[in-house]
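Input chain follows. Return structure tokens only.
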Amino acid sequence: MEYLERRVALVEDRIETVIDEAEPEELSDELGHVVLAGGKRVRPAVTILACEAFDGDPEDAVDFAAGIEFVHNASLVIDDIIDRSAVRRGTASAWAEFGYGPAIVTSDGLLGEAFALFSTDDRAMRTVAEAMVELGEGEATELAARPTTEAEYMDLARRKTGALFRAAAELGAVAGDADPNAVESFGEYAERVGVAFQMRDDVLDATADADDLGKPTGQDAEMDRPSVVQVTSLSPEEINDRAREQSELALEALDDANPPETEAIEYLRDLAEFVVVRER
């Protein structure tokens, strides 16, 4: 774990620097409240590992990794407003702490800082812009045309969660100067990991203890949100099996890139297996 912790620490340092330099001080405080409250840092870890899988220097991917974490957190701020969720990661959500207006400004600030970090590379900008389109369409679909079948749910999960995972891996592969086919394979790997992550998240919302999870549970049912539990008649065990299928397809996509056997690749394989058994 020390190997991965050192790489995540690089991202954490960059995140803190960007937040400290944000102006005015009130915005910096609000950004810190959201981003520094915790989080698994899964997406930035994927970015760093994908870069190293192609023999890239982790330092070359740090800005992209920090940027994708800012984008992710910006989306969470808006999710909490939509859901009226007052708790995030065991602490007050942005709107509950600062009010709706400042929370929206915080989300905007996070996106601004993110795109400043991506702006040094046209490929990075294009990658994240495409992910943002998918994310926006997914959020709109959830509100306006909720899925009613498993297939429609899977498409929603791909857009709402898988897209940012895809971007995280593709950003790392770009930083590692991978060829286009390898970038695409790593993107598919991460998108499927993201879908599996979302399915497991839905199961945890329905079955886990709120204190253990670090956020309110039962939100999907309370908000009548189209989780896989709400949309289908699948049992939690069957949903976990579906998530495991996505994990296996993710591993196949990773192998299609034919990467050298490195510690980074081993961690990416472990991640695909971890997301379907995690308890938080």
